Prior knowledge:
Helices cover 65% and strands 0% of the residues. By secondary structure, it is mostly helical.
Amino acid sequence: MSISVTNLVEAVYFMLPxxxxxxxxxxxxxGHPIDGGRLFRDGRPVFGSNKTxxxxxxxxxxxxxVGIVQGTTxxxxxxxxxxxxxxxxxxxxxxxxxxxxxxPFPVVDQLDFVVGALLFSIPIHQPSLPAALxxxxxxxxxxxxxxLLAYFVGLKKTPW
Length: 160
């Protein structure tokens, strides 16, 4: 299997709604926690205070709008929904492991939303295998660089 520039373009274009859905809550989030401050049966928050209703819906709307611009409304919606659900699952797991919100969880922090996005896209459309591999290879670097940028401009409290 050979990987080409075309595969790279396909990968980034395919994931653009997910990338935007993942970034939007950092910029426009805040407000009430999506779990309403409830605790799980282990006494820890379900998701934590960093996962908010506004952040979820802003992410969903942003990613869907990107999909609309691309002419792939339903795919954009599903990628965005998968991104946000994947991030919530990740937060749920971190809380079960007694990891505080914002604490680093290398690799999982960078790929949780990718797994969610790709799983939710399956009924609509999937990228080619080379593009999917590229997504998994480039996303951690993109994620780390955008988080560093968000930290330096004051949008995030931590650089990860």
